[in-house]
Amino acid sequence: MEMLKSATKKAVGTKAVLRALANKEAACVYVASDIDTFLYQKVTRACAEAAVPVHKVESNKELGKVCGLSIGCAAAAVCK
Question: What is the pTM of this model?
Answer without folding.
Answer: 0.94
